[in-house]
Amino acid sequence: MRISFKLKLILSYLFLIFISLGFIAFFLDKNLEEKSLQEIKTSLINEARLIESNISAVPSVLNNSTYLDKLSKDLGLRIKSRITIINPEGKVLADSGVSFQETANLENHLYRPEVIKAFKGQIGQEIRYSSTLKIDMLYLAIPIKNNDINIGVLRLALPLTSVQKVLFVVRKTIIVGLFFTLGLAFVLSSILAKALIGPINRIIYTSSKFAQGDFSHRIFQSSDDEIGKLAATLNKMAQDIEEKIREISTKNQHLEAIFNSMIEGIIVTDSSSRIISINHAIEELFDIKRTQMRGKFFLEVIRNSEISELINNAMGSAKFISKEVVLLISAQKVAQVNVSPVFEQDKVIGSVTVIHDITEIRRLETIRRDFVANVSHELKTPLTSIKGFVETLIEGALEDKENSLNFLEIINKHVNRLDTLINDLLDLSHMESKEIVFSKNKFGLSGLVSEVVLGFKSQAKKKGVELSFELPQGLEIFADKSKIEQVLVNLVNNAIKYNKEKGFVRIYSEQLADKIKIIVEDSGSGIPIKDIPRIFERFYRVDKARSRELGGTGLGLSIVKHIVELHSGSVGVESTEGLGSKFFFTIPR
Fold it and tell me: Is 477 exposed, middle or buried (0-12, 13-18, 19+ CB in 10 A)?
């Protein structure tokens, strides 16, 4: 059974008051009883001495039983006590409590305690239960002397009923007063306990709010006592905790913002390789949700045994580990994985894994290597030819008018090729630096395409390619006209060069939601599917021998891509090997 603190406090007050008043009542009762008995004893002693003086004044009075009987009964009525006169042998000579005839039948009193003391010359006093009268009696005996010789004993007996009645009334009054006091104390202690419990209940209520994490509440206590100090301390504690929580929350928000804004993927695990947290980069990299993986083992969520082994090794060795790992997910990616163990008091409690996607870096490194190799190759071929013919001319071929002119024409052709290559490289570099400023204007696209087609009529006719376009007359775009012309020239030129005899090249457009799509379709040999992702890279050729034979630099499509992207558009290709290709680009309206 649960007892409230308020009830405990009230019961404590009542218990203390009850014990205190009980002790007071006990000692008061004992003191009153003793004083009452002492007064009765004093009174009986005085009365006994008066009676004894009357008896001892008459010579040979103990031999006159009739006189003693009459004297004892007269005096007994007056003092309301039982008077007994006893001779030295213990025989009762007279007793006011019985008739004269019954006196002779009374038992010998020689060995009564009070009588023994009286025969010794002392005042004998004794309280004992009377089996005759069925009550407690006070017996007082004094010696009867004649010329300092004990000639008998005078005993007075007084029933204690009057004393007990007085004590009963007093005790009743004390008990009633005790219960009245306890009742009053209960009321007062309830009021006092309520006054004490009120602030405590407020403290309990506010403390429960603190326990629930709500530190905005405060305890209002105006007193300066211990409870007031406790309330002030709790308020100060709540304020400090609230400020600390706010500070920690702000720091956590900053850390969370940093955590989620990092482009590197971060995985935090505990000592058993269970995932504690991941950032957005990991969600995107592995296509998982943070809510689905928290608390799960690493391999349950990310099925990559190599990374899992790195995490276990880092925690096992308590050392930083870094390794390049190939990720086989939706597309093959290359990642630099760095694993650092987390310590608490020199004990490894988890790990932090940072996964940096270096796929693009590796791709760019490959492109850079290919670019250097391609540029070197593209420059080396014409330079070798130029050097060979120049050396031939120097060695005497210059005198050969017929051949020397042919050599110079070949040198001029390679020089023009180098010039075109370098100009394309400069254009490409200029566009990649994004320092180029376009002169954008609104112009009709149909008219521009018509001019480009007209410029390629002769080339198309030589190869037997049918060149046509179908564009709405009112179609206008806002762009740099010369750069869009360069895009169209590149695409149409490639479509004709890599087409088959009696093929076709068709230029048309499609209207998109917020863009215009221009398509250059040809009936050429098409592009193998493996080459399509790299077709817009610098110097990338599907058929390298044929491309060089036709005089291309390998930079045309890369220039097209950069021009279109600088116009906030995009480029693409759809092709089936052996069935032709569709090169397209989009320009915002």
Answer: buried
Q: What is the mean pLDDT of residues 59-68?
A: 74
CATH 3.30.565.10 assigned to 437-588: yes
Between strands 580-588 and 515-522, the pairing is antiparallel
Q: pTM of this prediction? A: 0.44
Q: Are 144 and 151 in contact (CB under 8 A)?
A: yes
Neighbours of 520 (CB within 10 A): 23
Place of tokens 């405990």: 8
If one compares 416 and 111, the residue with the highest pLDDT of the two is: 111
Reference 381, options 587, 572, 522, 539; nearest CA is 539
Q: Does the pLDDT of residue 225 top 60, yes or no?
A: yes
Q: Is CATH 3.30.450.20 what the domain over 42-166 is classified as, yes or no?
A: yes
What single letter denotes the amino acid at residue 529?
I
- Residue 133: what pLDDT? 65
Q: Name residue, tokens 């006159």.
A: 64
Instruction: Identify the CA nearest to 70 among candidates 105, 58, 43.
Output: 58
CATH superfamily of 262-357: PAS domain (3.30.450.20)
Decide whether 262-357 matches 437-588 in CATH topology. no
Q: What is the pLDDT of residues 364-391, one digit of tens each?
A: 777 677 666 666 666 666 777 777 767 7
Average pLDDT, rounded, for the chain:
80
